[in-house]
Design goal:
This protein has one domain: YhbY-like (Translation Initiation Factor IF3), CATH 3.30.110. The protein has 3 helices and 4 strands. The protein is globular and about 40 Å long. It starts with a helix and ends in a 16-residue tail after the last strand.
């Protein structure tokens, strides 16, 4: 599912106040990092990530790798931070209601 411009704008506004929950460090994106990111996306749907200076990846590459492997959407990349979104399948989590185009 590709996000529309209105949906991206909505998600960017929601992500503005979030603290980074996924941190990409010197080990880049290991299997453990992907597992943690998958679990975090399942619980929050919208997640902000930060890429530390010691990493071999930049934020754009890290966001794209995470999105590809976790079947998520890249919402925004600014500096060393990125925001990714994936709808959760967990019934206990309050889902983000995206605007319709």
């Amino acid at each position: 599912m590709a996000l529309s411009k209105k949906q991206i704008k909505q998600l960017r506004a929601l992500a503005n106040h979030l603290n980074p929950l996924i941190i990409v460090g010197k080990n880049d994106l290991s299997d453990a990092a992907y597992a943690q990111a998958d679990e975090t996306l399942e619980k929050h749907e919208l997640v902000k990530c930060t890429v530390l200076d010691g990493s071999g990846l930049d934020a754009k590459d890290a966001a794209q790798h995470l999105a590809d492997r976790l079947r998520a959407q890249v919402v925004q990349v600014i500096g060393n931070r990125c925001v990714i979104y994936r709808e959760t399948h967990d019934e206990k989590v309050t889902k983000i209601r995206l605007v319709r185009e």
